[in-house]
Each structure stands twice: as structure tokens, then as C-alpha cells.
């Protein structure tokens, strides 16, 4: 039997220049990947390469640099279509990130599909960016926003969810992987329930993209959003995938250059998707960096990455369970590389400051999920989130830092 | 604990965070204001009894980090018998010290200078000032919840 090549962690770490940065005399232990991940050399180089060899404004330019830039941009679109399993590159819209994608869908699909009394079904573990845009469009259309409850383990209560999908449900919008808890939601089952009632399904894939192999057609959703910066790509670039016929049907989001066919003061006609949703000069080099990040992830193998992260997370959960008074918030059976926790008698913010002194970067706060924090009765948590370069030794530093915090704050 | 941490979490601060003084609602209060730090979810409610232009008594309830709890606790101690205009001056002196705009003034701020170390932690300045912004609102009789952002 031929065994799979071992995950070469040292080699992976050497690909990320920032990991050799020292903070207060020690190398940074970066455990804040769910907020944003670091970038490998290949992504940085890919972005530089655009600016050094082929940068100009894209589309409509007759000169050579514009042609090169357009080719960089459109090749990246084709690459990302393949990465997410889209049928066609025309279904991939580049935008700033998941937040902009969700705002686009809420605004355009909402105006297209929602009437007074209709319902938009969310879950209790949504990021604010999958709550607020729906509230905004609900106010315009008279629709109602409903949230399915979360269990004590931090999983979606699927019985309650199923009961909330009804004939008034026009749109279901759900986080694929929870940023605050790491819960991987059963999107197959959610898609089935939405389809039965003829509701559109939107998935927030910001946290899924760096950990899961994506196939938007298999997932059975109508729209999928992700962010480049959470999957080792540049910040300020992400994508929205939508089914072609829906992208054709829904109204544009922003007006401006590139998204039109003809403009007159009497009547303006719109371009076909994806141009229809890309008003203005876009982030031109960003997609190239994003495509390089997709290359990087696939070269390592997303299942191998996920396997490594699961080992680090499980090690972290076991080390943290040894710390007196520490409680992990979110113990879902299907979980990505996130450990959210609270410690009796020590506020998460103080934990974060002590850990920072030890060169360990974690996030503390409500993680833009205030309803979820309220559900668990905590104002905030501390969250360690792991990426493909994290090590068990870094987890040991996290555990040691937490013990220091206990010495400081426990009477 | 290293020296940098010890500068931030001075013994007085740790003591007040573990055992906050004047903690609890005040029935006799005639001023009240809420403070909220959206960054970390810290909330507090400040109660004042103001008579003849001076704060007679101050108390608070809430849930927050060590810095914000200790800051609220020490604030309530510093308020007893303090004329309103002086209290407002103290708010500004305190804010200016923790944000690094002025040096700690032992004479004006007394015990509150223990918070001087916060100036080296820009992300923690809002924790230290939450109670003080809330105090200003209570004195100025503002009804809205005070946010640090």
C-alpha cells in the first residue's frame, strides 16, 4: 500500500514570509485565521507580477497593457469558477468580499423576490453581514426576517429549522461554516428543505473556502459568497457565484461603467452577467492573487489541509480542557478549525492582551455575532482559529499564555 | 507576568476588578446613564446622586474586562463629594492621560494615575474610558446609551 505523502508543515511555513516576524522577541503564533489569514509568497508574487508586467484598466482598452490586464483578470475568473465548481465563468462575480456579496444578493434578489409578508430564513449563528442586509431589504419590501435556533452544542436545531421553512419562506440564507464557533452546517439538508418549498438558498462561505472542497452545483444553493483574504488570498477581493438564470433575472446592484450596454437619458440597458454586477473599475490585481491562493490550496490538497487543521484543533481542545474554569463554546460534531472559549473570572479581552504579550494572536469579542453571543449568555469569547501553517507547539504557547492569565487575574 | 503587563495591570487595578467598589444599583440616584463598548460587548450602568451641584454618591452595575471594571470602580470612589464641573474636568484629564495626550498628573488625578499604563495599549483605551464617557452623559443628563465607537 502506498501511503499519502506526509503533510510537510515546515515547508508550508517557509512559504509564508510573515511567519518569521518576531513579536517581543518570539516568532508570532498567529491563531486568528478566521478573521484573516496570512499570504504565501506565491500570492504576493502573483499580485506583483500583474503590476510589473501587465497592469492597465481592463476591458475596452485597445492597447497591449489593457489586453494583458484583461487576460489576467478573466483568466482568474475562469480559475475561480473551476475552484468552486461553477458551470461557467460568467457565474462568477468579483467583488470586495463576502460582505459585499451578501449585500448584493440581499439587495438584488430581495428586490426581485420579496413581497410584503414573505419570509427570509436565517440562523441564530449568522455573522452580522448575513443579518443586517436582509433587515435592510425587509424594511423596503415588507418582508420578515426569521432566525432558526441554535442548540447548546452550537449546532443548528434542524427540527426547528425544518418547521420554520414554510410557504412564505422565499429566501434561506445560511452560514456554511460558523466564524464564531466553527460549526459546519448541514447544507445538503438545508438545500433540500429550501428546494421543497421553492425558496432560494444563499450560502455564506467566508469560513468554508479555506477548509472545504467546494462544489456549488453539488451544494444545491443558488448563490455562494466567499472572501479571498480568509483563504490566503489578498484582502479586498472576493467572489459571488450565482446561477446564471438568476443573475440574469435579478436587478443590478450598483450602476456605473462596465455594467451597461447602452445609456441614454431616456433608457439604459444593462450588460449581461458578470459585467452587469461589476460597475466601475474593479480590483484588477486582486483576482490574480485570489487565483494564486486557489492554486496554493489545491497544490497542498484541501483534504490534507483540513486534516492537518483538524489535528491541531483537536490537540488544542485537549490542551485547553486541562485549564481550570475554561469552557469551550461550540462543540459541534462537524467543526472547522475554530476553538471559541471563555474562562471563569477572566474577561476575554484581558485574555487577549496577556496572550498578545506572549506573541500569541487570538481574537476576542463578539465576532460580529451578537445574537449568537446572547444565545450562549456571554458578552464575548476568546477565539483561536487555525490555518494550514499552525503547529502544536503554537497551541502549547496558547495554553501557557492562558495559565499566565489565570495567575494574573484569579485572586 | 512580564513588566509590560505589570504596567497595565497594576495591583490596584486587579484589586478593583476582583472586588469592585460601589457595585450595585442605587435607589436614591437622580442621574443614570448606560455605557456600551461595541468592540467587546462591555456594558455598564452608572448611578449618581447629585445634590447642590455636587455628586454625593456614585455606583455602577455591569459586566466588563478588568480595565473597564476597575476604571468604573475607581471612578465611583473619585466622585464622592465632587462638584459637577470638577467631575467633568476629571473626565477630560483622565481621557487625555490614557490616550497618551498628557502626562499623568498625580495632583489632579490621584489614585487614577494607575491607569497611565493603558496609553501603551491603544486597543484598551476604550475599556478605560467607557465609565468616564458614561459619567459625562449622566452629568449632562443625556438619555442615550453612550458608545465608545
Task: Summarize this structure briefly.
The complex is a heterodimer of chains A (411) and B (149). Chain A has 14 helices and 17 strands.
Q: What's the pLDDT, averaged over the residues of chain A?
A: 96
Structural class of chain A: alpha/beta
Give the CATH topology of the largest domain in chain A: Aspartate Aminotransferase, domain 2
The biggest sheet of chain B, with number of strands, parallel, antiparallel or mixed sense and barrel status, is: 5 strands, mixed
CATH architecture of chain B: Alpha-Beta Complex
Q: Tell me the strand percentage band of chain A.
A: 15-25%
Radius of gyration of chain A: 22 Å
Number of domains of chain B: 1
Proportion of residues in helical segments of chain A: 25-40%
Q: List the chains of the largest interface with their residue counts.
A: A-B, 20 and 23 residues
- Largest pleated sheet of chain A: 7 strands, mixed
Number of strand elements of chain A: 17
Give the arrangement of secondary structure elements:
The complex is a heterodimer of chains A (411) and B (149).
Chain A: H1 9-14, E1 22-23, E2 26-27, E3 29-30, H2 41-53, H3 64-84, E4 92-95, H4 98-113, E5 119-123, H5 132-141, E6 144-148, H6 158-164, E7 169-175, H7 187-196, E8 200-204, H8 216-219, E9 223-227, E10 238-242, H9 244-249, E11 260-262, E12 269-270, H10 286-300, H11 302-321, E13 326-329, E14 338-343, H12 348-357, E15 360-361, E16 363-365, H13 370-375, E17 381-385, H14 392-409
Parallel strand pairs in A: 3-15, 5-6, 5-7, 7-8, 8-9
Antiparallel strand pairs in A: 1-2, 4-10, 9-10, 11-12, 13-14, 14-17, 16-17
Helix pairs in contact in A: 2-10, 3-10, 4-5, 11-14, 12-14
Chain B: H1 3-8, H2 11-18, E1 31-37, E2 42-51, E3 54-63, H3 66-79, E4 82-83, H4 84-98, H5 106-109, H6 125-139, E5 146-147
Parallel strand pairs in B: 1-5
Antiparallel strand pairs in B: 1-2, 2-3, 3-4
Helix pairs in contact in B: 2-3, 3-6, 4-6
Amino acid at each position: 500500500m502506498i501511503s499519502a505523502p506526509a503533510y510537510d508543515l515546515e515547508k508550508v511555513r517557509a512559504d509564508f514570509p510573515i511567519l518569521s516576524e518576531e513579536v517581543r522577541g518570539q516568532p508570532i503564533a498567529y491563531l486568528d485565521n478566521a478573521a484573516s489569514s496570512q499570504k504565501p509568497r506565491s500570492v504576493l508574487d502573483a499580485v506583483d507580477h500583474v503590476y510589473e508586467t501587465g497592469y492597465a484598466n481592463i476591458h475596452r482598452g485597445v492597447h497591449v497593457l489593457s489586453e494583458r490586464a484583461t487576460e489576467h483578470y478573466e483568466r482568474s475568473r475562469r480559475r475561480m469558477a473551476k475552484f468552486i465548481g461553477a458551470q461557467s465563468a460568467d457565474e462568477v462575480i468579483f467583488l470586495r468580499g463576502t460582505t459585499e456579496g451578501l449585500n448584493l444578493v440581499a439587495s438584488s434578489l430581495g428586490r426581485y423576490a420579496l413581497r410584503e409578508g414573505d419570509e427570509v430564513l436565517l440562523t441564530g449563528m449568522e455573522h452580522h453581514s448575513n443579518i443586517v442586509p436582509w433587515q435592510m431589504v425587509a424594511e423596503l419590501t415588507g418582508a420578515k426576517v426569521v432566525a432558526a435556533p441554535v442548540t447548546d452544542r452550537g449546532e443548528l436545531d434542524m427540527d426547528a429549522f425544518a418547521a420554520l421553512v414554510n410557504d412564505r419562506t422565499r429566501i434561506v440564507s445560511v452560514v456554511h461554516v460558523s466564524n464564531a464557533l466553527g460549526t459546519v452546517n448541514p447544507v445538503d439538508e438545508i438545500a433540500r428543505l429550501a428546494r421543497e418549498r421553492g425558496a432560494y438558498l444563499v450560502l455564506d462561505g467566508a469560513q468554508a473556502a479555506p477548509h472545504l472542497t467546494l462544489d456549488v452545483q453539488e451544494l444545491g444553493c443558488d448563490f455562494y459568497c466567499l472572501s479571498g483574504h480568509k483563504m490566503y488570498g489578498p484582502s479586498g477581493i472576493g467572489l459571488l457565484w450565482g446561477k446564471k438564470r438568476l443573475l440574469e433575472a435579478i436587478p443590478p446592484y450598483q450602476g456605473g461603467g462596465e455594467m451597461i450596454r447602452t445609456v441614454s437619458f431616456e433608457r439604459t440597458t444593462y450588460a449581461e452577467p458578470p459585467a452587469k454586477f461589476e460597475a466601475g473599475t474593479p480590483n484588477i490585481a486582486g483576482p490574480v492573487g485570489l487565483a494564486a491562493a486557489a492554486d496554493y490550496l489545491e497544490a497542498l490538497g484541501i483534504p490534507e489541509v483540513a486534516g492537518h487543521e483538524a489535528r491541531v484543533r483537536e490537540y488544542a481542545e485537549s490542551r485547553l480542557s486541562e485549564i481550570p474554569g475554561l469552557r469551550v463554546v461550540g462543540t459541534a460534531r462537524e467543526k472547522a478549525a475554530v476553538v471559541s472559549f471563555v474562562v471563569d473570572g477572566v474577561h476575554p479581552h484581558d485574555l487577549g492582551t496577556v496572550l498578545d504579550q506572549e506573541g500569541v494572536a487570538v481574537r476576542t469579542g463578539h465576532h460580529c455575532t451578537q445574537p449568537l453571543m446572547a444565545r450562549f449568555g456571554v458578552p464575548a469569547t476568546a477565539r483561536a482559529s487555525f490555518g494550514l501553517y499552525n503547529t502544536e507547539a503554537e497551541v502549547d504557547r496558547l495554553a501557557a499564555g492562558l495559565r499566565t492569565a489565570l495567575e494574573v487575574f484569579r485572586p | 507576568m512580564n513588566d509590560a503587563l505589570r504596567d497595565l495591570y497594576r495591583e490596584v487595578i486587579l484589586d478593583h476588578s476582583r472586588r469592585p467598589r460601589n457595585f450595585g444599583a442605587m435607589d436614591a440616584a437622580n442621574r443614570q446613564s448606560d455605557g456600551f463598548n461595541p468592540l467587546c460587548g462591555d456594558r455598564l450602568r452608572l448611578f449618581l446622586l447629585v445634590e447642590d451641584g455636587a455628586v454625593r454618591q456614585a455606583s455602577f452595575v455591569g459586566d466588563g474586562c478588568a480595565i473597564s471594571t476597575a476604571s468604573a470602580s475607581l471612578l465611583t470612589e473619585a466622585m464622592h463629594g465632587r462638584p459637577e464641573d470638577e467631575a467633568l474636568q476629571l473626565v477630560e484629564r483622565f481621557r487625555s492621560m490614557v490616550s497618551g495626550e498628557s502626562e499623568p498628573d498625580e495632583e489632579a488625578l490621584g489614585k487614577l494615575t494607575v491607569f497611565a499604563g493603558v496609553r501603551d495599549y491603544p486597543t484598551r483605551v476604550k475599556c478605560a474610558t467607557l465609565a468616564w464617557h458614561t459619567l459625562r452623559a449622566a452629568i449632562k443628563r443625556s438619555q442615550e446609551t453612550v458608545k465608545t465607537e
